[in-house]
């Protein structure tokens, strides 16, 4: 039987279970008077040291441990299940933030503040941020690679500024006195312009913005006749 009385188990790291298990295994290897190698012994140490809320996510594993390798089985399930539940918690936390009348960069700052204590990866923050943007802006940003949340916010700000300017121009022309019948057609197409027309103008502007954002040669882009970006990648 292994001597386990001198093992000092590190405090569980809720934000990074994988790191905690790595530290735990280092503790097992450096245990006095000899390393702890038996899976059942490591499993027992793990069970009595994980927080109750974490234990609840793997209750079935604790109540009926694996007979072959109980420690590795418990370790894998804790990392998998708690990581998934943590991601869901973060998604719920950030999903309450909406763009509304804010600039995209303002929305991102709010989301970052809400996420700062949760060790949120930028890839997840970017995914949740993009979901709050208008579809036409999403179509631009999802075609750019690589992309960070900060760069996405800068490009989204400029894209929306251009889109709003296009819509305002159409509205102003149709609100003047003595309008022609053609202006009635423009009124009917206003929503279409809001979604599509700005792509023709935004192309060169977006490429210029990306040159500034990424600090290198602007990416190439191609649009079809509907103003939709078909391809946009960094060189």
Automatic annotation (TrEMBL):
Residues 9-94 form the DUF7041 domain. It comes from the Eukaryota. Pfam families: DUF7041. PANTHER family: ENDONUCLEASE (PTHR33327), RNA-DIRECTED DNA POLYMERASE (PTHR33327:SF3). This is DUF7041 domain-containing protein. It comes from Araneus ventricosus.
